[in-house]
Fold this protein.
Amino acid sequence: MDVQPRLNLETSSPLELEFYKGAYDAGLPHQVTDSWPVERAADLTATDGVVASRVSNNNERSEAVWDFGHGLAYLERESDGTLRVRCHADSPEYAQAMCDTIHVALPEREENAADKIEVGFWTAHANHGGSKTMREIDAPSWDEIADNYPDNSELQRLMSQKFEAGTGGQLLLWQGEAGTGKTSALRALLREWRTWCRGHYIVDPEAFFGNRADYMMQVLLEGGVTYYDGTEKEKPTWRLLILEDCGELLAVDAKQDVGQALSRLLNACDGLIGRGLRILVLVTTNEELQKLHQAVQRPGRCAARVKFPRFTRDQAAAWLEARKQNDQPINEFTLAELYGRVNNLVTQTPASQAVGFTKE
């Protein structure tokens, strides 16, 4: 796919600027640009017969310039493993040959790990801003786990292709007690959205929404990666900011307890801060929805409110029967308790008693 380079004197790296100056000075007018997914750890050191004039690496991306003699190539590997290649040469044929050579040296990533997703985990720096660590984690498909969430039409709507990001608001609110399957559903959601959305997990939400405005702004304004949708245009992805077990941020008395956290969250969703940003915010909480601030739940701000209830006795019996467990439950169960029964880790437990075992 041939796309025009996006050269910006303010945001382009020194190596990228050096590459374009070298191509201009060498009189290399023909360009071929392509991109494909490679392994995140792909080494951009040049292949045999080609000189790498410079390679730069960090935790988020890598870049390099390869010198082919009659052409120069700029390589940029994004944090999600997308490799972007720009080849300048004295003929279009040679530019394409350069691109083909790079494709052989850095082949397309095998997509046999369909059950893997990459998530960025953010933490605040001690002095300024934040840092992100990319991790690959297991993720079930929605079809594999849908029966863990009986009669949950709102969750099904989020998982379907009919869901339109930003329609009805940018806040997603998930509520359920521990063990009801919120984390499993979250991993499945990221897998279903993997073609257009990237997950960013905020490890320390108290710092993110606390007195560290520099940290929050770095996460919100970080340049998103892009993807191809089958046309010749690159389209920016959405980003999903994940805040687990943060009901205290959304409580009626949140302003008294955690300062400006609530107002910052709302501004990140649909206020001036979030205007124009392709950001969704997912908050999970154990608090009952009626205990949460009405400003969080109002139409136009909250795009989805998903409740994760316990299984009724009939639902639990059907779930166990599907797994060849014929005993009849005598009370309601969380998903974690049902998995505990299947794995012989728990016995019949009254619904009011905490189990102390989760498998989300």
Remarks:
- Residues 92-105 form the longest helix (14 residues).
- The domain at 14-105 is CATH 3.30.310.10 (TATA-Binding Protein).
- Confidence is low (pLDDT under 50) at residues 1-8, 224-234, 349-360.
